Amino acid sequence: MSPISNIQPLQWADLATLAPELTLVIAAILLSLLDLFLPRKINRDVLGVLSLVSVLVSLAFVISKMVSMGASADPAFTAHAIQLLGQSYRVDDFANVFKIIFLSGTALILFMSLGSIREDEIQHKGEYYYLLLPAVLGAMIMASSGDLITLYVGLELLSITSYILVGMKKNDLKSNESAFKYIVLGSISSAFILYGMSFLYGMSGTTNLAGIAQMLSQHLVDFKVLIYVSFFLMFAGFAFKVAAAPFHVWAPDVYQGAPTPVTAFLAVVSKAAGFAILFRIFYNVFFPLGSEEYTYMRGDLTLSVLIVAALAMLIGNTAALRQRNVKRLLALSGVANAGYLLVPIGSFNLSNFSEFGFYLIAYLFMNIGALAVVMIVSRSSGNDEVSSFAGLYYRAPFTAVAMTIFILSFAGIPLTGGFMGKLFIALGAAQAKDYWIIAVMIITSVISLYYYFGIARQMYMRSIGEAFPIRIPAPLGITVWICAIATLFLGVMPNVIVDFINHYFSISFDLFIQMGS
Amino acid sequence: MANIPILTLITLSPLLGILILLFTPANKNRLIKTIGIATTFIPFILVIWMFLAYDYSEKGVAFEENLRWIHMPLNTEAYQGQVSSYFIQFNYHLAMDGISLLLVLLTAIVGVMAAFASVHIKKRWKTYFILFLLLEVGMFGVFMARDLFLFFLFFEVTLVATYFLIGIWGYVGREKAANKFLIYNGLGSALMLIAFTLLIATAGFQVDQSVAGQTHLSYSGDLATILQNLIQPSESSVVLSAGMQKTIFILLLVAFGIKLPIFPFHTWMLKVHNEAPPAVVMIHSGVLLKMGAYGLIRFGLFLFPQQTESWATVLAILGVINIIYGAVLALVQKEFKLVLAYSSISHMGVVLLGLSALNEIGLKGAMFQMISHGLISALFFLLVGSLYERTHTTRLDELGGLARSMPFMSGILLIAGLASLGLPGLSGFVGEFLSFLGLFSEMKVIAVVGTLGIILGAVYVLRGVLGITYGPMEDRYIGIRDARLIEAIPMMALTAFIVLLGVYPTIIIDPLQHSFEQFLQLIKVGG
């Protein structure tokens, strides 16, 4: 099969399939024009509301598509995945689950920004609001791509808009510095990924993931070393994007320098997008490799994923012990969480996608919630040090309680989504008999108890001189409580999400790309 | 009667108080204290009722509640239609047997008494009582849960609640003490969670083909299922290798050993005894330490009888180290709270000794010692709380002669001391006697060395108690008053329980009639 024959133009009928993406494209263009022509005195929160609406419309399209594509177990329904543009773009439940996560995360971030972003944090709010749209679009393209080129286009769309978003505080030197670091390091990591991809193309002569997988498995003997080289190059690049140690050094600086809602976007959507391509490429291209003779190869590759996971947990959690700045602390906790999320990818068991998806959703809520609280606190204190949480219980008791829920979830205490997610991942690893990684996971979360509870200590056990109440903008407060309730819900009724994923997701149709289907 | 979910009522009744407290204005401190104390009476009355209704002669569990809770589907594609369902199952499963009954009773009693002792709390009563009642929910749950997931959940509830209770309302070094508590116990919980994960993924695996043509695969956290698969594996159950069994057993031993605490994991509990508010120490020393011993019995001994047997000597030696180490260090402490802390280490060593005997007398002795020590240390810290209110110190070198100004409290203190050193007629004696008796028939030398601890015990207890009550009194203590009524009531109640157990030990021994039967049989078969 020659790859050339696969090229096919976009059909009119395909546009319906692409409705979620097109909504965002159109909204982004219209909103940027609107920003240009609207008089200065009009509050740019209007744009925020409009982009929130477009994200929600897109989300509705994704969900309706997902439902209409039918359940994984439905025997009457065989078209589990829709492939467009010669298999380079695919709409399947793997992508749909990720898209739901991206879009709900972005929706929460947009909502909490309404009316609560101060002038000194982001001067040009309009830009901020409409730039989030192409960013999330990039993430969606990454989740949906079945081809290296499409994938890279999505990756760069996300990366470049993120570089701009990080540098939104134009007059703040620290923010400029972090944006610059992010551009330089981000481009290097993209180069790594591209270099790794070029090996794949060189070995197989195609950029289509299914095609690459087929060619590589046929010519495994010839390319053994090159496969390792390309795997490690790409893994290094992906590990940078998801901020997994030892490729995480950028994260604390960038998270601290970026405006807080952008930090939330990087921590949740951008990270999740990195995982989407990592998951897809590893399972389609690398992990199926190995006939009887070369099974050790898969062992090597999965082991290296687990080693990076273990490093991320160890380094993230121990480095966070010394942090006094909440955003840096959350960046390092994000490194550790990237480690937890890598475990289901590296330890193969049949349900690893639901484990992964569940934890990602739990992580989304606790992280956005925690950063929303950081926004509330830093609005009143003017900084985001851990000490600015002192006496929060007296100043804003409900917010303090919500933050406690997020802390407990991060630290892995039962009745929260974070605990259920970790337990689910640990049980999955136990099914795959990767016992050592369970030990690393659970022991490192003991280390994390110390710094998470450090925040609780500030909130409940310290106080500042006068306890004046904090004013909380309504959208911010509502976001905090949506996240808190969702975190508790995931902890008490985890089966709802797992049922949902398990109902639609099928390994053979949704994760693996079938040739020619 | 069978239709009333009595176990759930006991476990969750403190939540009712929490709910009422949430809507009580924070400045009405009398009302808050009344609600707090009143709420602890609900489970207390229910437990007493159950204690009376419990039929000891019947085998197995008398009360049980089992509801499906978490049912997480796993992917079945690889089985290509041969498997109807594949899932992870955690149940809300509570049950009551003799062991649980006694510890739940202890929790209910100490809970009420500690609520009374909480009148000395100086600030933020509303938050205090909410956390206090939450802690009670956790303790009841721990002793009744029969699902690994549920057990862990309640265990962590006690961890979080205690952390805040120490950290907010403790003495000067409270934050450090709370941190130390958190890290040590967090580590213990983590090891326990690793062990539980391994157990659920191996012994918790079940193949259900009861309905023809349907195969259901599941991982379950249900204790009965796991026990069944470990003790009498069927063809379909996963057989654990000896190495795996050993790993899990050691993980559980360390996890619960930190809580118990076994030397050298005890340093955290010294800090807690010294820095936490006395009402919380009553719960901590009275009940929370027993969770360690309970976990060791329920998960270590019962699930792994063979492992226990091969580790019995080690357990006994650890017990003796605890006894002697605790007793010797209690001798030289200048702070009365630390004398009591080290004496707790010493007494929990006796529990370990009793367990390591692996015979009926020893096991019952260990249980008796747990209950008795729970009551005695609760009484001690009740007194410490009232004493500190009056003298603002509990250092032995700054106290003395208090019998003159407060004869009632001094008398109670003396009784507590005598109970603690093991005077016949009081509860401390029976537990120690049975534990040593049990061990003596198995390991004579260790038992003899252990009895040294009893002699030392008499010395350090009398040194502490007499140092406070007799001798010259400093002038500044002349005006202090004896116990108020609200302080005297729990003191007398606890004293009454201690005397009752001392003169009528069958109250405790009877419910344990059948508790250890299965375990002892398995040991006999294995040995």
Total number of beta strands of chain A: 2
Order of helices and strands of chain A: HHHEEHHHHHHHHHHHHHHHHHH
How much strand content do the residues of chain A show?
Answer: under 5%
Radius of gyration of chain B: 23 Å
Largest sheet of chain B: 4 strands, mixed
Largest interface: A-B, 40 and 40 residues
In the sheet with the most strands of chain A, the strands line up as: 1-2
Shape of chain B: globular
Sketch the topology of chain B as an H/E string, one letter per element. HHEEHHHHEEHHHHHHHHHHHHH
Helix content of chain A: over 70%
Radius of gyration of chain A: 22 Å
For the residues shown, what is the average pLDDT of chain B?
90
Domain tally of chain B:
1
Write out the strand line-up for the largest beta sheet of chain B, numbering strands in chain order.
Answer: 1-2-4-3
Biggest β-sheet strands, sense, barrel of chain A: 2 strands, antiparallel
Helix content of chain B: 55-70%
GO biological process, one term (chain A): ATP synthesis coupled electron transport
Protein name (chain A): NADH-quinone oxidoreductase subunit N
Subcellular location (chain A): Cell membrane; Membrane
Transmembrane segments (chain A): 12-34, 46-67, 94-115, 127-143, 149-168, 180-201, 225-250, 262-283, 303-322, 329-350, 356-377, 398-415, 435-453, 474-497
Task: Characterise this structure.
The complex is a heterodimer of chains A (517) and B (527). With 517 residues, chain A is an all-alpha fold. Chain A has one domain (15-72, 84-511). Helices cover 74% and strands 1% of the residues of chain A. Chain A has helices at 12-17, 19-37, 45-68, 93-113, 125-144, 148-166, 173-204, 209-218, 220-241, 250-257, 260-286, 295-320, 326-346, 352-381, 392-395, 397-411, 417-431, 435-461, 474-492, 495-504, 507-511, and strands at residues 82-84, 89-91. In chain A, a hairpin with a 4-residue loop joins strand 1 (82-84) and strand 2 (89-91). In chain A, helix 4 (93-113) packs antiparallel against helix 11 (260-286) and helix 12 (295-320) runs antiparallel to helix 13. Chain A is globular and about 70 Å long. The model of chain A is unreliable at 1-5 (pLDDT under 50). By secondary structure, chain B is an alpha+beta fold. Chain B has one domain (6-526). Helix content of chain B is 69%, strand content 6%. Chain B has helices at 6-22, 29-53, 98-117, 125-144, 148-169, 174-201, 223-231, 242-259, 267-275, 278-301, 305-332, 336-356, 360-391, 407-421, 427-440, 444-469, 485-503, 506-509, 517-526; strands spanning 63-73, 85-96, 205-208, 216-220. The two termini of chain B are 42 Å apart. The model of chain B has no long low-confidence stretch (mean pLDDT 90). The interface between A and B is large, with 40 and 40 residues. Chain B: This is NADH-quinone oxidoreductase subunit M. Chain B: Keywords: Membrane, Transmembrane, Transmembrane helix. Chain B: It is a multi-pass membrane protein. Chain B: Belongs to the complex I subunit 4 family. Chain B: GO terms for molecular function: NADH dehydrogenase (ubiquinone) activity; NADH dehydrogenase activity; ubiquinone binding.
